[in-house]
């Protein structure tokens, strides 16, 4: 009974811990949702400008839109810094393995792939893949909760690697935040910026007559890096929101399991206690008290 009582106390403590972690994650998720909403005006303005530019009767050229034969591909993949978020990182890692196979089926088995992981857990997971044409490179001191300056430096570094020819294309792999109970794995090509990249990020042709000063191509080359930065900033924020949402669900499940286990242990404890009381009463009634 003493051992059982100790287990009951341990499970009660675990229940309190998981409940507290759930509330903390809920607050962090709402904060990330607010950050997503704050990004919308900037993102919307960039999309409007891009749509107006695409509607102009002009030719656009930029080093960031240059398509070349793919022999070296890059994949930026987002994960979490901390654990206790269920199968969040496992699902992303499975998606990464699938994407690597898809790229090699498309461009050949000799394709060299460089992984740019974000988040401590994803860094540890991707390092296991190093070798066989796969390189893992951590850019700067980047992590899942990096601030705006670090995100900007990370984005600039990725753009520079594409411009220098270190990679011929760049894919982004992350969890797209839908709601607390739903996050979907999303993969999209960021570089070179093609028409699919723009349409995937809600850029539509406005079809309005505008006079551009200076010329439309110059403005396009100025706005395009801002568009790329807006996409990456949103991904960082979505990753934080998705991580916290996954942790809420994991802690809720752990909390429910703790309650069920506590009920079972309490029932077992009450049975043993009742048996001991009954045994003592029978001893007294039978005159066998020693």
Automatic annotation (TrEMBL):
Record's bilayer topology term: Peripheral membrane protein
Residue ranges the record marks as coiled coil: 248-282
GO MF assignments: proton-transporting ATP synthase activity, rotational mechanism
Keywords: ATP synthesis, CF(1), Coiled coil, Hydrogen ion transport, Ion transport, Membrane, Transport
Domain of life, source organism: Bacteria
GO cellular component: proton-transporting ATP synthase complex
Main location class: membrane
Compartments where located: Membrane
Keyword Ion transport appears in the UniProt entry: yes
Family in the record: Belongs to the ATPase gamma chain family.
Listed PANTHER family: ATP SYNTHASE GAMMA CHAIN (PTHR11693), ATP SYNTHASE SUBUNIT GAMMA, MITOCHONDRIAL (PTHR11693:SF22)
Record function comment: Produces ATP from ADP in the presence of a proton gradient across the membrane. The gamma chain is believed to be important in regulating ATPase activity and the flow of protons through the CF(0) complex.
Protein's name in the database: ATP synthase F1 subunit gamma
């Amino acid at each position: 009974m003493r051992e059982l009582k100790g287990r009951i106390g341990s499970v009660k403590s675990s229940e309190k811990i998981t409940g507290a972690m759930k509330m903390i994650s809920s607050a962090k998720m709402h904060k990330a949702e607010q950050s997503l909403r704050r990004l919308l005006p900037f993102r919307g303005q960039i999309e409007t400008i891009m749509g107006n530019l695409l509607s102009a009767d002009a030719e656009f050229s930029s080093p960031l839109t240059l398509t070349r034969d793919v022999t070296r591909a890059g994949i930026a993949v987002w994960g979490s810094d901390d654990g206790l978020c269920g199968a969040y990182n496992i699902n992303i890692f499975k998606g990464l393995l699938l994407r690597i196979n898809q790229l090699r089926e498309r461009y050949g088995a000799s394709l060299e792939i460089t992984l740019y992981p974000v988040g401590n857990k994803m860094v540890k997971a991707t390092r296991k893949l190093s070798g066989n044409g796969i390189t893992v490179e951590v850019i700067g001191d980047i992590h899942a909760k990096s601030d705006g300056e670090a995100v900007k430096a990370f984005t600039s570094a990725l753009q520079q690697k594409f411009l220098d020819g270190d990679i011929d294309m760049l894919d982004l792999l992350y969890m797209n935040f839908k709601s607390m109970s739903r996050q979907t794995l999303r993969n999209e090509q960021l570089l070179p910026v093609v028409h699919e990249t723009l349409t995937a990020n809600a850029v539509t042709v406005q079809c309005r007559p505008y006079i551009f000063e200076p010329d439309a191509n110059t403005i396009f080359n100025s706005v395009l890096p801002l568009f790329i930065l807006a996409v990456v900033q949103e991904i960082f924020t979505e990753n934080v929101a998705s991580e916290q949402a996954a942790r809420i669900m994991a802690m809720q499940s752990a909390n429910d399991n703790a309650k069920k286990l506590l009920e079972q242990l309490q029932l077992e404890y009450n049975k043993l206690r009742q048996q001991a009381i009954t045994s003592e009463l029978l001893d007294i009634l039978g005159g066998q008290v020693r």
